[in-house]
Design brief:
The chain has 135 residues and is of the alpha+beta class. 28% of the residues lie in helices and 12% in strands. A hairpin with a 4-residue loop joins strand 2 and strand 3.
Length: 135
C-alpha cells in the first residue's frame, strides 16, 4: 500500500502529484510518548467500563449494543458530548483533551485505539472520527 510521509512527500511515484494535499484531512495529530501513555491509561478505563456493558449482555442485532448503553457507560466516566464523544452502531470515540480513544464494542469484541485528533474530522462527530469525505 502506498504511504504518505508527514512531510507531504510521496513515497510511491505512482500517486497523483497532489495526493498528500488532497488527503490531508485524513491526517491525525501527532502523539508524543507522554500523550500516548496518558491515552493508553484513558483507554484502559474506557475498556473496563465498556466490558461491564458486554457482561450485562443484551446485545441487539448483529451483536451491537444500543448507543444509549454505550453512552451511559462513558457517562459513568464523566465523558459526554463536551468530550467529543461519538457513538454509532457499536463504534465509539472519546477525546480525552489530550488524545483520542476510539474502538468497537459488540457482543464478540471490545477494541480500542489511541490516536491523535483528525485535522478535519467527520462533521458532527467530534475530533476523533475520520472524515469519510474530503475537504
Amino acid at each position: 500500500m502506498p504511504s504518505v510521509t508527514g512531510t507531504g512527500q510521496v513515497e510511491n511515484e505512482e500517486l497523483a502529484p497532489h495526493h498528500a494535499e488532497n488527503h490531508a484531512y485524513r491526517r491525525q495529530g501527532p502523539l508524543t510518548a507522554e500523550k500516548r501513555v496518558r491515552g493508553e491509561a484513558s483507554a484502559k478505563l474506557i475498556r473496563k467500563e465498556l466490558e461491564k456493558v458486554r457482561q450485562e449482555d443484551g446485545a441487539g442485532e448483529y451483536g451491537v449494543f444500543s448507543d444509549e448503553r454505550i453512552a451511559a457507560a462513558l457517562k459513568r466516566l464523566g465523558c459526554g458530548r463536551e468530550h467529543g464523544v461519538y457513538i454509532g452502531n457499536g463504534f465509539y470515540s472519546v477525546h480525552t483533551g489530550v488524545t483520542c480513544v476510539s474502538g468497537r464494542v459488540t457482543k464478540d469484541e471490545l477494541t480500542s485505539e489511541v490516536h491523535g485528533a483528525y485535522a478535519e474530522p467527520q462533521p458532527g462527530t467530534g475530533p476523533c472520527v475520520e472524515n469519510r469525505g474530503g475537504h
